[in-house]
Amino acid sequence: MIRVAMISFWHVHARDYARQAREHPDTEIVAAWDEIPERGRAQAQALGATFYESLDELLAQPDIDGVIIDTPTNMHLEVMVAAARAGKHIFTEKVVATTLRECNQILAAVEQAGVKLTVSLPRLYHSYTLAIKDILRQKLLGDVTLVRTRLSHNGALPAANNPGGWLPEHFFNAELCGGGALIDLGCHPMYLARLFLGADLPEMVSANFGYVTGREVEDNAVAVLHYANGALGVVEAGFVNRFSPFSIEVHGTEGSLFYGTPDDRLQIRSALPGAGGDTWHQLALPPEQPLAFHQWVGHIQQNTTASENIAMAVDLTALMEAANLSARNKQPVRLDSLAR
Fold it and tell me: Which one is the CATH code of 2-115: 3.40.50.720, 2.40.50.140, 3.10.20.310, 3.30.70.3400?
């Protein structure tokens, strides 16, 4: 049995990961810590876990094997490095850090300690992603020229029972989060665009942010990934759209595909043989891969490394840092200019 500790309940998905840990046959939650003790104590009691006032004391416990980290993003470097040095395996919410330099510091500590790291990038393992990867592997669209990915919800919009929206207020704190809609919700369309556009990173990123509800972080965002071969990635995210569907578009020299516009169907049209003919048609979706949490458990048990997951998480951090810098400075940012 893998004994895990919950490190903060700050993130909205902390309870989801706690549920996954409780439901997994090979893990149990035995401890918790939170930067807000009252919150952590209440959650620990609900989970039947021991609450530790001191994070150092929790990490010093020899019978804790791993940690699920859901702290504010600006605490990731300190907490993950401490967890790695204590020999604890790490499952964490995206992003790994707000800068590529901090991300690399975390990875260096993980590698030196020999612990297993997995980052929650759940849409990498969904059926539509697997189907699109297979289409692109077969080059059924020709050369990819443009990818558009969009994810938005109404979390910042006022409601009758919550004038500030259903997202917790701390999700609009620039210091804690490192940004707004793009670095939170926009992580998913960002890493999908990165995946679909091939093996190389873009040369540069440009981004524009909107502030519809007047918070200190953006609630409406667009980032554009610029590639050396002329291909573009358009990544959109927001907290101010009530009925905006999650959607993917991939366009190539010989065909195009659409998912979620607005229904959860994958449709393709291509002039190439093997793509089903030169008419729009729907493709069946394959089974989904295991959740990232389940993959983390497997890496611990099998002494393997989440190499692809970690590589994507590093690229995601770099793309988010570049997008934030671009929006702030109102100019494109080259990826090779980021401090490492």
Answer: 3.40.50.720
CA 36 to chain centre: 24
Torsion of Cα atoms, 23 then 25 then 29 then 30, to 10°: 150
For the domain spanning 123-291+320-337, the CATH number is: 3.30.360.10
d(CA 21, CA 27): 6
The confidence score (pLDDT) of residue 330 equals 98
Continuous H helices in the chain: 14-23, 37-47, 55-59, 76-85, 100-113, 127-137, 174-177, 187-196, 292-302, 307-329
Q: Is the pLDDT of residue 276 over 80?
A: no
Q: What is the pTM of this model?
A: 0.96
Confidence of residue 212 (pLDDT cuts 50, 70, 90): very high
pLDDT of residue 199 exceeding 90, the answer is: no
Query: Domain spans of the chain?
Result: 2-115, 123-291+320-337
Q: Which residues contact 188 (CB under 8 A, 6 or more apart)?
A: 121, 122, 123, 149, 151
Q: pLDDT at position 78, please? A: 98
% of the chain surpassing 70 pLDDT:
100
Of the candidates 323, 324, 318, 316, the residue with the CA atom closest to the CA atom of residue 194? 316
Report, in angstroms and rounded to the nearest whole number, the Rg of the chain calculated over CA atoms.
20
Q: Residue 198: what are its φ and ψ, rounded to 5°?
A: 105, -170
